[in-house]
Design a protein that fits this description.
Blueprint: H1 13-30, H2 40-47, H3 51-57, H4 61-75, H5 86-103, H6 105-114, H7 120-140, H8 150-170, H9 177-188, H10 191-195
Helix pairs in contact: 1-2, 1-4, 4-7, 7-8, 8-9
Protein name: TetR/AcrR family transcriptional regulator
Organism: Lacticaseibacillus jixianensis
DNA-binding region: 39-58
Length: 197
């Protein structure tokens, strides 16, 4: 999850434009071809930046991919949810990620058409958000009656949530947010109410 680019540093307008161009280009290309067939050269050509500029920000295309996921995470303000009550933060985080996927449904359909669910790309995406969601839940959980380590419970929740969202958005099942939330509550009950209360 460590990127060459430090997102905590102060960013100039020029750097912001450059990072946006590279990440938008990568997402566009992912809707056109498999990740394995995308090269740094192609990203630079389509984004209209030299390779040297790419390497000022990223180590390789995997690093750029991590930045794309970072941007998505920031788009829905997941990090701020750890300040909320734990049960509220769980449901709010689920809704935020659902809404993010829903807003990008057309792109996701294109990406999955070129990158199957067992591809390196989907594994990278799922792994990134599992760690983010686990970290969020571990930070906000109040383990009153848990014998299981909070980190393990958080990992279980995050994997369940991402499995639901993968099933809905990547496997093409049309389910609204309310139904998706009911799936999450049913799959995680009664552990959800015990561990996040």
């Amino acid at each position: 999850m460590k990127m060459k680019y430090d997102p905590d540093q102060k960013i100039t307008r020029g750097a912001k434009r450059t990072l946006l161009a590279f990440s938008e280009t990568m997402l566009t290309l992912l809707g056109e071809k498999p990740f394995e067939k995308i090269s740094v050269n192609e990203v630079c050509q389509v984004a209209d930046y030299p390779r040297a500029t790419f390497y000022n920000y990223f180590d390789d295309k995997y690093d750029l991919l991590t930045y794309c996921w970072f941007r998505m995470r920031k788009e829905v303000h997941l990090d701020s949810l750890s300040q909320a009550k734990s049960s509220d933060s769980f449901l709010e985080a689920f809704a935020q990620i659902y809404n993010l996927f829903d807003a990008h449904r057309e792109l996701l359909v294109k990406v999955v058409a070129h990158n199957p669910l067992d591809s390196q790309l989907v594994f990278n995406f799922t792994n990134y958000f599992t760690r983010v969601f686990s970290s969020l839940l571990a930070a906000s959980a109040r383990p009153r009656r848990l014998k299981t380590p909070v980190e393990l419970v958080a990992q279980h929740y995050s994997m369940t949530v991402l499995s639901i969202l993968e099933w809905i958005f990547l496997a093409g099942h049309h389910v609204d947010l309310q139904t998706a939330e009911s799936y999450a509550q049913e799959l995680l009950a009664p552990s959800t109410t015990k561990a996040l209360s």
